[in-house]
Target: Protein kinase domain-containing protein
Amino acid sequence: MEDKLGLPENKLRDFIQGADKAKWIAKNNHNIKYFTEDEIKRTTSNYSTSLGNGSFGKVYNGIIDDNSAVAVKRYSRIDSEEEFAKEVIVHSQVNHKNVVKLIGCCTEKNAPIMVFEYVSNGTLCENPHGSNVPVYLDKRFSIAIQCAEALEIVLHILPT
Ligand SMILES: Nc1ncnc2c1ncn2[C@@H]1O[C@H](COP(=O)(O)OP(=O)(O)OP(=O)(O)O)[C@@H](O)[C@H]1O
Model:
């Protein structure tokens, strides 16, 4: 399909070339949903509600078919298609309570998008730093440990 980023459905791994490819295939499971951009537009009511901005683009609120809330991250820039593919692959394999779950992605040209479960109560940065409620040291340690656990899982998945 020519209008795709070169990431046909269920074959993201084909992006990964040469020696890299073998590493990714070995661990890949890809049980994520592939959205068309039209589906994403329906999900987000045409990108009507922004949740925030990140360094790679905007995040929008959406509702998918089973009525669950999602965060739709639309990349305004990707450094390379391979990097986007790798990010999708890594996210699709992480299954950890401290890592937001990837539900799906869109690989249409000009619409590199990842769809995540919606996380309520704001970001980690907003909570200890932006709230008036004091966050005591034991809670801060607990947050730090949980972040480290999540990071460990992600690093374990990344190929060396
Ligand atoms: N899963 C989510 N659920 C709810 N809100 C989210 C979710 N993901 C992102 N957001 C909102 O969108 C904002 C931007 O998120 P995004 O992940 O793009 O940026 P970031 O956290 O700065 O990371 P990056 O380095 O990838 O740009 C967040 O600050 C948050 O307010």
